[in-house]
Design goal:
By secondary structure, the protein is an alpha/beta fold. The protein is globular and about 80 Å long. α20 packs parallel to α21. α10 links the parallel β5 and β6. The longest helix is centred in the first third of the chain and has 19 residues.
Length: 566
């Protein structure tokens, strides 16, 4: 039997963190290892300035720390900030076959390290990433278009918490398998005894295909789940959002080498815009696991072609995130909460609400409102919230690409083509620091529930639909139908009626989507908490996995048994 590592300097160093995270996971309680405030009081005096300087020093040159990857000798570079500047960072083009060979050669030592050692080493990787959170925030901001504070939080500490979560979920699942047992079967005379040893083995090379809008947050669960279960990882970023994952790879390779492991366990596969590398990598014989976040077209291709080729595929695609409005005893709080949810990062979130089902009459603490009156008040709330350009840009960020921008260039024409009416037009916002940024406020389009073609396709970005229904019962029926058919990452309901809330919970279970009820404060439908909230369910077409449950990690390793008489 191969020797399994049971000691390592990082085990004691990170034991407390791993135990605290594991306890929070078991209890589903609040836990955050990494503070979400970018304040120097939290991250140290001078940390914002050091992060900005580190980012600036990265621009317009070859990235550091990746020169020892197997390369073709070429460099690639396609990143332009949604705020205007071209980043000019050049990345080595990976020699795919040589990289796969290097990754496979790195497996034995990493496999034979214990699950505990792997968890400790990976926790050190996350700790080092956290120390560079301000630098990472600039990288996320200038590749995704997120506003700075959101880039810091979602691209930094929140993503890091999700990474740590994946590490401890993986550790928990591996700990369920004993290393060795003495097995006894009763028999005449002495029992039959066998020694049975259980060895955890990885699947093989894992491929993580990143997205443009949340390059770290969406990639970290797959990266760290695969590494924690013994698999090397090749990371293929979106061509316009390479830098955040390049920094991640840089840090991971540095830590792995220091910890005594082959840095080929983590490699970056960057490409120029318009390439086919993701498809080529997905079908490479060495790749056994694929994690993907992005559009439904390529996601469906992976779920058919890559799965048919024997790959284990985890996808997060697109969906119709839904809000069912019935009644409220806090109209102002509800409108404020929804307004923030629509406005945050201009709706460019997989969790942002899109379809708001409103019955003919909505009962509120300010009187009864017709569907049209409710829609008007929601539009007024959005206009007031985004009325000051200088403040609005800190919530809206910048639109990430031309596809998103085209949807709000002419909202009246879009509404007419869909058979709807304009409740609130989008307006351009001037960014005080980045004049070339394209920033747009959310648009609302009103449609009748019978006009299903208008609202049953994801309209990614700052466009939402107020769907007029006859009553709440119809709203719930259409909610179930659309999410079951087209997918959804989030759902919300507003009602003062306990029976309606019970019915909404049943509807969410039928649709296979997580539900938020009567959010009027500082928790929003498009936010989830690591160690407590699952991101996605895997129970509807929007995603076939959840960050991070046992199913997300347990199939990334297998168990090989050796047995003998004793």
């Amino acid at each position: 039997m191969a020797k399994t590592a049971t000691t390592h300097p990082l085990l004691d160093q990170h034991a407390e963190t791993i135990e605290a995270a594991t306890q929070a996971l078991r209890e589903r309680s609040y836990y955050s290892r990494y503070p979400e405030s970018p304040s120097p009081r939290v991250y140290g005096e001078g940390s914002p300035e050091r992060g900005q300087l580190a980012h600036q020093e990265t621009l317009n040159k070859e990235i550091d720390g990746l020169a020892d990857q197997p390369t073709t000798g070429r460099s690639v570079s396609s990143e332009k900030s949604p705020y205007g500047p071209t980043l000019g960072v050049r990345y080595p083009e990976l020699d795919v076959d040589a990289a796969m060979a290097a990754a496979q050669a790195a497996i034995p030592a990493w496999r034979d390290a214990s699950a505990e050692v792997r968890a400790a080493v990976l926790t050190e990787v996350v700790e080092r990433i956290n120390a560079r959170s301000h630098e990472m925030a600039h990288a996320v901001m200038h590749t995704s278009g997120q506003p700075f504070v959101m880039s810091f939080q979602a691209g930094g500490p929140h993503a890091q918490d999700r990474a740590l979560e994946a590490i401890v979920v993986a550790l928990e699942e591996q700990r369920r398998v004993p290393a060795s047992v003495t097995w006894e079967k009763p028999a005449k005379g002495d029992p039959i005894r066998m020694q049975k040893d259980y060895r955890l083995v990885p699947r093989g090379v894992a491929l993580v295909i990143g997205c443009n809008t949340f390059p770290t947050w969406n990639a970290y669960p797959g990266i760290f789940a695969s590494l924690a279960t013994g698999n090397p990882v090749v990371i293929k970023p979106h061509p316009r959002a390479v830098l955040p994952l390049a920094l991640t790879v840089q840090i991971a390779r540095e830590v792995l080498a220091e910890a005594g492991f082959d840095p080929a366990l983590v490699q970056l596969a960057a490409e120029d815009d318009g390439g086919t590398l993701a498809k080529d990598l997905a079908l490479h014989p060495a790749v056994k696991i694929i994690d993907y976040t992005g559009g439904p077209g390529f996601g469906r291709w992976l779920e058919t072609e890559a799965v048919a080729a024997g790959k284990l595929v985890y996808t997060e695609k697109a969906g119709l995130n839904t809000v069912v409005v019935d009644s409220t005893d806090d109209l102002r709080g509800m409108l404020g909460n929804l307004t923030f949810s629509f406005s945050l990062y201009s709706g460019q979130m997989c969790t942002a609400p899109q379809n708001v089902y409103v019955p003919a009459t909505v009962t509120t603490d300010e009187g009864e409102l017709s569907a049209e009156e409710f829609a008007g008040k929601l539009g007024q709330a959005i206009s007031a919230f985004t009325g000051d350009d200088a403040k609005a840009v800190e919530i809206l960020g910048a639109t990430v690409n031309d596809d998103v921008r085209s949807r709000v260039t002419d909202v009246p024409a879009l509404a007419q083509s869909l058979g709807g009416d304009v409740v609130l037009d989008s307006r351009p916002v001037s960014h005080p620091s980045y004049p070339d940024a394209v920033v747009r406020t959310p648009a609302l389009i009103g449609v009748d529930a019978g006009n299903e073609t208008a609202y049953t396709t994801e309209c990614f970005g700052p466009v939402a639909f107020v769907v007029r229904t006859a009553d709440t019962a119809e709203s719930l029926r259409r909610f179930v139908q659309t999410v079951a058919e087209h997918g959804g990452m989030t759902a919300a309901v507003y009602s003062t009626d306990e029976q309606v809330l019970d019915d909404a919970r049943d509807a969410a279970a039928d649709a296979g989507v997580a539900l938020s009820e009567n959010l009027t404060g500082q928790i929003f439908v498009n936010q989830t908490a690591a160690f407590s909230d699952l991101h996605g369910t895997g129970a509807n077409p929007a995603a076939n996995a959840a960050y991070a449950d046992a199913a997300f990690v347990a199939n990334r390793f297998r168990v090989i048994t050796s047995r003998r008489h004793v």
